[in-house]
Amino acid sequence: MESEAYFLLAGACLLGAVALPALLHRYAVSPAMVLLLTGVVLGATPLADSLVIYVPDEGDRLVVEHVTELTVIVALMGVGLAIDRPLDLLRPSTWRRWSPTWRLLLVALPVTIGLVALLGWAAFGLAPATALLLGAVLSPTDPVLASDVQVGGPGSSIGDDEPDEVPYAEDRTQVDLAGEVRFALTSEAGLNDGLAFPFVHLAVLVLAGGSFWAGAGEFLGWYVLGKVLIGVAVGVGLGRLLGAVAFRSRAESLRLAEQGEPLLALAALLTAYGLTELAHGYGFLAVFACAMALRAAEHRHDYHREMHEVVQRLERLLTLVVLLLLGVAFSSGLLQDLDWRGVTIGVVLVLVIRPVVAWLSLAIVPRLNSKAGGLDTRGRFAVAFFGIRGVGSLYYMAWATNEAEFPDAGWVWATVGFTVAFSVMVHGIAATPVMRRLESVPSGNSD
């Protein structure tokens, strides 16, 4: 890219980050929709000549990988700080309030991967590795583009009249139906990026060939268990350490919470991600776990709001950069390999597979909707429908195609790009009216 194009991109994204959220919040139009369409229009002009990302080129794929990677980890830190509902791994009582999350992660996620892969392989003739890659890339909901249906931020579901000094494991959140929907989607987005990564690795292993049993053992033992445990352990450990220093250090200069220094959040997310990747764990899981552990240090402290605001602003800017570049790519050939098969997969995933699979995972032996973590029929439909695809899918696709040469990679890129755009449009239009309707429903959920 030439320097003029960089300045143009930076200026457009900053203007969008400042103006669009306030301008569009009353309408059934999301900033993501506007920026994506702006990128498409910009891509049809000579101004975008230096902004084109050509994904078959290895250098351009690396740019996509690293920009989307940074965007996702920033979003995961924001999500982890924003969740008010406690989760203490040593207290099973807190796990029950996360019932929708576990159902979406342990049932809906792998079933969605399997159905998309089966559709690609059995119906459309993709190679097994490519079909599995497509399923893994398109399976996770996105922590970046789901802001319209996520929780509002630290303290947003805790009443002002609640006491400040409450043990972390005691859930004092005031949750209505809309709040339960927002919590389910936010917590799912925070965790499923890391949990989809083993299946992306599996696609690479399948492409490489080798013994089935040897490959299965490596996949389950290392890619599913080992790397997940490393990510959680590093994230929780670092979050607790930083929380102890920031809030309770004996040295006044290290008590960053008293100084109100919000850049600790950025330092935490980069450190957690870097340490975990060096230890060969899943950095996405580590960042979310670090944010949750940091939040647990002083659950009700205003410092979390300050850190969240900084992270949210950076996330908004990075998201707009990615969407603008994606729109430019649409006008510059990214969709040239798209055919009816790719369109079918994208539409069926967004409108059929995700809604049906997620609804069933939430509806079978559900937690009572009178309890925290419970959802009634309307809530289950909303959570099932808002399976937003986005920046995480682009990152996984860039990472995988940089690791190995997949058959039909150009077609998969086009299918992923179309699916992300279709999700942005469908869910962007539906988010505002659906959430307003849910917010009008009275509810008295408690533990």
From TrEMBL:
Tell me the membrane topology, using the record's own terms.
Answer: Multi-pass membrane protein
Chief localisation class: membrane
Q: Which residues form the Cation/H+ exchanger transmembrane domain?
A: 17-436
Q: Which residues cross the membrane?
A: 6-25, 32-54, 66-83, 104-124, 195-216, 228-247, 279-297, 317-335, 347-369, 381-399, 411-430
The domain of life is Bacteria
- Xref: InterPro entries: Cation/H_exchanger_TM
Compartment annotation:
Cell membrane
Q: Which UniProt keywords apply?
A: Antiport, Ion transport, Membrane, Transmembrane, Transmembrane helix, Transport
Q: What does UniProt give as the signal peptide span?
A: none
Q: Does the keyword Transmembrane apply?
A: yes
Q: What is this protein called?
A: Cation:proton antiporter
